[in-house]
Amino acid sequence: MKTEKEKMLTSEYFNPLDKQLSDDRLAARKLLHELNHNSPEEFQQQKEITRKLLPNSSKATFIQPPFYCDYGYNIKAGKGVFFNFNCTLLDLGSIEIGTKTMIGPNVQIYTAVHPKNAEKRATGIEKGNPIRIGKNVWIGGNTTICPGVTIGDNSIIGAGSVVTKDIAANVMAAGNPCRVIKELLNETKSLS
Hints:
Blueprint: H1 4-9, H2 19-36, H3 43-53, E1 62-63, E2 67-69, E3 75-77, E4 82-83, E5 87-90, E6 95-97, E7 102-103, E8 108-110, E9 112-113, H4 118-122, E10 127-128, E11 131-133, E12 138-139, E13 144-145, E14 150-151, E15 156-157, E16 162-163, E17 171-174, E18 179-183, H5 185-190
Parallel strand pairs: 1-4, 2-5, 3-6, 4-7, 5-8, 6-11, 7-12, 8-13, 11-14, 12-15, 13-16, 15-17
Antiparallel strand pairs: 9-10, 17-18
Helix pairs in contact: 2-3
EC number: 2.3.1.-
Domain Maltose/galactoside acetyltransferase: 5-59
Family: Belongs to the transferase hexapeptide repeat family.
C-alpha cells in the first residue's frame, strides 16, 4: 500500500494532512521564513538556504525573496533559473524549469488539483498535475500557470497571462486564457 507521499509523488489523490507531508511542509516553511527574512547583504547564506529548500534544483538557481512553495523538493530548476520577487509555487506536483528561464515578479505556478465532485472535494484530498517549463523561457510578471501545463523552450509568456493549456516552443503568447500571438523562430535563429 502506498504512503500518502508516494501517492503525491505519482500524481494520485492523497491526503495532505498526513503527518509525513505535514512535517515536510513545516520544514519548507521554516526554510522559507529564513530565506524571506534573510538580510539582503547575506548573499551566501541565501544561496545555502535555497539549496536546502530546493535540493533537486541547480546550485545556480537564484531566488529574489519573498518566495513561497509547499515542499521545495518537487521543484527542479535548471542552471541560471531566476525567480523575481513574490513568486508562489504550489509544488505538490513536480515543477520542472529549464536552464536560464526567467520568472517575473508575482508569478504563480499551481500544480494543485481538487476533485470536481463536491463530496470528494470536501474530504480535503488533492493531487498535483506536473508543470514543465522549457529552457530560455521568459514568464512575465503576474502570470498564472495552471496544473498540467507545458511551456516549450525559448517562449515568452506576456505579463498577466493565465496559462491553461500547453504553449509550444519558440512562440510569444499572452492573455486570459493565454494564446499564441506570434512565432519567434526567426528571432531565435538570429541569436544563434
